[in-house]
Amino acid sequence: MAESIDRIEKMTLRFTRPRFVGSNARKGDHGDTVTDPVVRITSTSGATGVGWSRINEDTARMIVGRPVDELFSPESGSTKSGSLIDFALWDLAAKSAGEPLYAFLGARGSKEVELYDGSIYIDDIGKSDEEAVAIFKDEAATGLAFGYRNFKIKIGRSARWMGIEEGLARDILVIRTIRETAGPDAKIMIDANNGTVLNLAKEILRQCEDVGIYWFEEPFPEDPCFNEAFKQFIDEQGYDTLVADGESGPPPPNFFDMVESGWIDIVQQDFRGKGLTWWRETADRIAPWGARCAPHCWGSLIERYTHAHFAASVPNFSMLEAAPAEMPGIILDGWEQRDGKLIVPDTPGIGFDLEPDVWALGLAAEDGFTVDA
């Protein structure tokens, strides 16, 4: 008899970040609370899989009792029916095989996954230059204290929050402040959330020539004319800056044509939104073009552990987005963070779970549920 899904449990972890996170070029304050939904699936053999998931109780009732091979195959990953529990299905499959997930996926990358702190937001609206410098020195220091060595900075203040000249000047001031605080070896990324235009993006790189920008993320909405011209400018100037894009969705239908043309270097579709199955296929698709993977994953802590296994499984991964946070009640089996990198363990599956009392409290909460076959 084929193995099937015997139980699906869902709960939500909530915790507070060490500091408030402000705006980006488009949206207002992001706050200081993280909400992480976690699912645990159990098969008829008693094996379990754990991972981030948005599945609701009605959909769980439609999945429980179904054969695992209708939801997942080791060769191609989750089917459409299994996509909402994609991470948990991969964990279940790797545990059943007795392998760490990265090895189950192919083990073609490095187990030492480089991190960056993506929490440097626009936290200086209405502040003076002196106040802004103090704010961002403190924010970079917080990231360093949590073991991060690389930083991504939200820019694009002139899109909404400041005048064009004032916003540009403040963007540059903040970039320089983070570079000074993080030190010369840090990778510095900037993210405009589509809040600049071509000529403004060029000017930012000109004024930050001596800073060294590792990548420029979402300078403007993806467009063949703009992206080709921007990449041509970068090449003509002799900059090493990479262009990262794809997070805001859905990207245009010709997005991957621009990647293949070399106008977008770093592909960033959301890891939770697309899932590990999609990203596994996409990493192989873009590798022959010289493009790299750095999926968007802001707003979750538990996702990073599945994400790091993916990173260690492909040869063309760039860096993993993270943020200062501590979450009590999680079990990390073999995981280590060292020298700004997350070290992927050889524990079967993901090597992530929750303590029993945390599961009990979460499942008993108003938004928790258990569905049995």
Explain what this protein looks like in three dimensions.
- The protein is of the alpha/beta class.
- The protein contains twelve helices and 18 strands.
- It has helices spanning 57-63, 68-71, 86-97, 101-105, 129-145, 164-182, 198-207, 224-237, 255-260, 271-286, 303-313, 356-364; strands at residues 5-21, 31-43, 48-52, 72-73, 77-78, 112-120, 151-154, 188-191, 215-217, 242-245, 266-267, 292-293, 320-322, 330-332, 336-338, 341-343, 352-354, 369-372.
- Strand 15 and strand 16 form a beta hairpin.
- Helix 5 (129-145) runs parallel beside helix 6.
- The model has no long low-confidence stretch (mean pLDDT 97).
Descriptive tags:
about 375 residues; alpha/beta; four-stranded antiparallel sheet; 12 helices; 18 strands; about 35% helix
Topology overview:
Blueprint: E1 5-21, E2 31-43, E3 48-52, H1 57-63, H2 68-71, E4 72-73, E5 77-78, H3 86-97, H4 101-105, E6 112-120, H5 129-145, E7 151-154, H6 164-182, E8 188-191, H7 198-207, E9 215-217, H8 224-237, E10 242-245, H9 255-260, E11 266-267, H10 271-286, E12 292-293, H11 303-313, E13 320-322, E14 330-332, E15 336-338, E16 341-343, E17 352-354, H12 356-364, E18 369-372
